[in-house]
Prior knowledge:
By secondary structure, this protein is an alpha/beta fold. The protein is 48% helix and 11% strand.
Amino acid sequence: xxxxxDSERSENAGALVxxxxxxxxxxxxxxxxxxRHQALVAAFxxxxxxxxxxxxxxxxxxxxxxxxxxxxxxAALLLGLAQMVLxxxxxxxxxxxxxxxxxxxxxxxxxxxxxxxQAEGYAFYALYPEAFSAAARQSxxxxxxxxxxxxxxxxxxxxxxxxxxxxxxxxxxxxTGHPFDRHLAIRPSLAKRxxxxxxxxxxxxxxxxxxxxxxxxxADWLVEHGIAEQRIHFFPSHDGAxxxxxxxxxxxxxxxxxxxYVSFDQLVFNAPHPEHRLENWLATIVGPLQAPLRDLSGGxxxxxxxxxxxxxxPADPAMEKRKFLAMANGRRWLAKFVGVGSSGQAKLKxxxxxxxxxxxxxxxGLCHGFLITPWLEAQPTTSVPxxxxxxxxxxxxxxxxxxxxxxxxxxxxxxxxxNFGEHWGEAAADAVRTALGDPGxxxxxxxxxxxxxxxxxxVHGPDGWSKLDGLDHHASHDLLGxxxxxxxxxxxxxxxxxxxxxxxxxxxxLAARIGRPLSAEFLAANRLCYLAFQIGLWxxxxxxxxxxxxxxxxxxxxxxxxxxxxxxxxxTPD
Length: 574
């Protein structure tokens, strides 16, 4: 099923350098504390994106990784920033390292347009650069270690490892090829530098995923060029085994390899130092906690809802963000991971806007990746919000221009054809292809769509209907991204079980609000694509969950299938 995708942006290197300068200047002007530290980490992550984008531009031009002056300047800049992050963290956010010489940023600012990639671990999976520093500290490796980061996120994570070890430089590589069979393309001058290392080798990245081929592709290259496997160490973002698509020899290597990993819980939940503990971060915003944090991750948030167990909504626990319930000053608070660095800052801004518009509680603050909001005390109900409320919400989303690229209409059409074909066979793919037609006849206007309009995300509280989970899904780790508001309009029709007449009336009212037509044909195409995406999403969730969760997921898929049959006016297989 086609569901997931990478978020990539076109950015001007000069503008990106200006952003990094502004962030560093803001950091230098702030008082000591966690807020200053998270400002520094945000600048570090943006610098990592700059270095990644420039390295990838050179890679694209040469079809291989090479050592160059700009690569060396970028690596040195990152290593210096990583040392600043490390000093701030180790001092309990009190020490401030001097700002880096601006010469490096000057030299990098003229690179023109580059393609930067959002680091998923920082944005979605509670991956902290400081965790890789902690892993390096426990590794026992020496300063003569050759540190190799796998782009994209690995270039910054490698800097954290190297700064901790006292290594003098870092390298980064871009494995290429089939996702399950990655390999390196390295030109001789870089190869000579990499192979000249006298100590051990550290390979740094998030993952591994289904195959672990990026980690192992780098290890394969080193072994093929005479580096003993015993000298190779891995720095992953989890301690699990390789996924189902791994080659046997890679699986065996991974099992016997020396791996260094510090979990989120070890870093900020059960941290040995009080200043690094999540509960103390929260206390700076909501006051001292009156009870231990309660973990609501992995679908356990449903235990606090009004519905009995048999009416719980479905969830895909493995893909959920970390979230906790806190009690302070006699109130309950939700602490949800929304992203380290600029990703979290953007979510805080949207949370403020949602609150000002009356759709969600006002956020209390952001503490290094976690957004703090009052816990919304929902009242039991079997109803759905009024059409006026839904209309107001859709108009709100339509008024926020896209802040990142989403899937194009041709990509959505291809996804729908593929997913229905995989689900029901080639005849279904042909029917969808015919029903969708040519995407070029439409002119979508992307905005910050919600992309998560399921009925269980609407809750009725003391102040009326609120919309939960409205911060992340227009910039999530899937292929959707920002879409035309027609996507959310189609989703509302599906998820709130609206009649054809209700959908048409809602479309007319929304078109009048936003000042442009939303044709029935365009809405029908979005509805079909939406159903294809949801069938793909929940079919994958079905495969990775146990019987309890499957009992909730299966009826949801059946409902999507029934709506797809009606939309296609076609008798699909059982």
